[in-house]
Amino acid sequence: MYQNTPPWRTIRLTRRGRFALIATGAVVAGIAVAVPLLTLESDGDSRPSSLLIPEGWRSGQVYAAVDKALALPAGTTKNSLGRAGLKLPNDAEGNPEGYLFPATYPLAEKTTPESLLTSMVDTANKKFNGAPMAAGAQRNAMNVYQAVTIASIVQAEAASKADMGKVARVVFNRLERGMPLQMDSTINYALNRATLKTTSDDTKLDSPYNSYQRMGLPPTPIDNPGEDAMRAAISPTPGDWLYFVTVKPGDTRFTADYAEHQRNVAEFNAGQKKAGSAK
């Protein structure tokens, strides 16, 4: 049925479409990504009055941000998980990744890591378990936790809000066809990094988060997605796409045809080469 589909090792989706593995296996780095910095809001006192958790942060980033906001030793928030009594889905097995909802949280004098984590998870449960989200997940033959996992991939991969529904559709199309997802963002999660450079050796990583070697979804979300990504996960844009690449900012191309994808990647690589020689 997929005789015209190239070997899995030659197919490379891109993290937000900004780098691509061409058929030879070479990795071409694209545009640098600025890692979000901790955002604190203060009313003039030495202690901040609120903490902003951006969409797409991983749990480790959230823990570090809480430690900094509350002026606690590094690792304090992570070590408080067992005491927080978080109301997580059974599938999460105690891991709050995906449920530390991105929002602005007030910081009071008596705020603790446990209270902040509880607020984040409670907010996520209200957002994700409401009728629209839960019904949308059921409509797509998945539970809410699986929808959050897809949303986390969408959050990591989509170059813009407008692309989120299409990225979600690529995920669904690949799952339905029994294809590995082959998302670089899952490998980056396994390696706890945010690099744009993913090598062929990286794709051989022995990890349940290696979506080149493992079929289906990763075992947990890979970040904490926002509502836009979640909506995309339960209502993906109709289409037959299997590949995507951002040729240049604002120009992400989705296709079901591998040959067309190769041409798009070639155009991307040519643009990167031209930009590099102009420096």
Provide a short characterization of the protein structure.
The chain is mainly alpha-helical and 279 residues long. The chain is built from ten helices and seven strands.
The amount of helix comes to: 25-40%
Low-confidence stretches: 1-37
Whole-angstrom Rg: 20 Å
SS-based class: mainly alpha
* Order of strands, widest sheet: 3-4-5
* Terminus-to-terminus distance: 46 Å
What percentage of amino acids are in beta strands? 5-15%
Shape: globular
Secondary structure layout plus pairing:
Layout: E1 20-21, E2 27-28, E3 39-41, E4 50-52, H1 59-69, H2 76-79, H3 81-84, E5 104-106, H4 113-128, H5 131-139, H6 144-157, H7 164-176, H8 184-190, H9 227-234, E6 243-248, E7 251-255, H10 258-277
Antiparallel strand pairs: 1-2, 3-4, 4-5, 6-7
What can you tell me about this protein's structure?
The protein is mainly alpha-helical and 279 residues long. The protein folds into 2 domains: 8-33 and 142-277, no CATH class; 39-128, no CATH class. The protein has 10 helices and 7 strands. The chain has helices at residues 59-69, 76-79, 81-84, 113-128, 131-139, 144-157, 164-176, 184-190, 227-234, 258-277, and strands at 20-21, 27-28, 39-41, 50-52, 104-106, 243-248, 251-255. A 3-stranded antiparallel sheet has the order 3-4-5, covered by helices on one side. The termini are far apart.
